[in-house]
Design a protein that fits this description.
By secondary structure, the chain is of the alpha/beta class. The protein has a single domain (68-235), classed as Rossmann fold (3-Layer(aba) Sandwich). It has nine helices and six strands; from the N terminus they run αααβααβααβαββαβ. It has helices at residues 4-12, 33-37, 64-68, 86-95, 99-117, 133-139, 143-155, 178-185, 211-222, and strands spanning 75-81, 125-128, 164-166, 189-191, 199-207, 227-235. Strand 5, helix 9 and strand 6 (227-235) form a beta-alpha-beta unit. The structure holds zinc ion (2 copies). Residues 46, 48-49, 51, 62-63, 65-66 line the site of one zinc ion (ZN).
Length: 239
């Protein structure tokens, strides 16, 4: 059966796969199924921080760092390894202002979490990892917000957009050792008001060292949250 209105719309708004360019009419997502299946899905990661583990590790295992020092957050959900083409998608979003990619990544995150929702409750609120206002001015948008906004909408979870601020514009963390990272991030965030929600998901695009997430989690817990989890699009393997 044909729906003339729908076909008119797909004529007006042709939908192409953002990776291979294939036309995919009638789909509310700019990624075709074959390209989606070939993405570097993270299958076995540390139970706490999603650090990629070898397949010989049992599911639920912890990485070396989390065994030594458990993080202040309780779990994480990272979709991909930070490999091709996810690294390129994220850089197109961040540096080429392709906000449609933020939408796509938010959709993919929401899809994978709605599977989980069937057996386990999701957090009560979502917070996008805040950018310092200087960086926000440079970039014009916060990529974590673009992803979190779509996720919150699709999963019907409140988005706490103004709950916290980043007050330190920290240099890239990779160049620093763990101790320096911690010092660098001390008091990097302030929580604007008491957190009324007990369980919160922090959303970000890439998790590298996880230092910012640890610091923000500590602040949220001080402000009254009880359970923090991280939702991240990609996890790097550099520690
Ligand atoms: Zn494709
Ligand atoms: Zn870990």
């Amino acid at each position: 059966m044909k729906y003339p209105l729908a076909s008119n719309f797909s004529y007006l708004f042709p939908n192409n796969c953002t990776l291979c360019g294939e036309n995919i009419p009638g789909v509310d997502k700019s990624l075709c199924l074959p390209c989606q299946e070939q993405l570097p899905w993270l299958k076995n990661g540390c139970r706490y921080c999603s650090y990629p583990l070898s397949d010989s590790n049992l599911s639920g295992a912890l990485c070396g760092q989390c065994q030594q020092t458990p993080p202040p957050f309780h779990s994480s959900h990272c979709l991909f390894r930070y490999d091709y083409p996810v690294d390129q998608l994220i850089s197109r979003l961040k540096f080429n202002h392709q906000l449609m990619i933020g939408r796509l990544l938010g959709q993919l995150m929401a899809e994978s979490l709605s599977v989980r929702r069937a057996c386990e409750a999701l957090p009560e609120a979502i917070i996008p990892m805040p950018l310092h206002r200087r960086r926000l001015r440079q970039r014009g948008f916060n990529q974590a917000y673009e992803i979190a906004f779509v996720c919150a909408n699709r999963l019907n979870i409140p988005l706490l957009d103004n709950a916290c601020r980043r007050i330190k514009d920290t240099p890239p963390q990779l160049a620093l050792d763990a101790k320096a990272r911690r010092r660098n991030l001390r008091q990097a965030f302030i929580i604007e008001k008491g957190i009324a929600h007990q369980s919160i998901a922090i959303v970000d695009d890439v998790m590298t060292t996880g230092s910012s997430m640890r610091e923000l989690s500590r602040e949220l817990i001080k402000a009254g949250a009880e359970r923090i989890e991280l939702w991240c699009i990609a996890r790097t393997t550099i520690e």
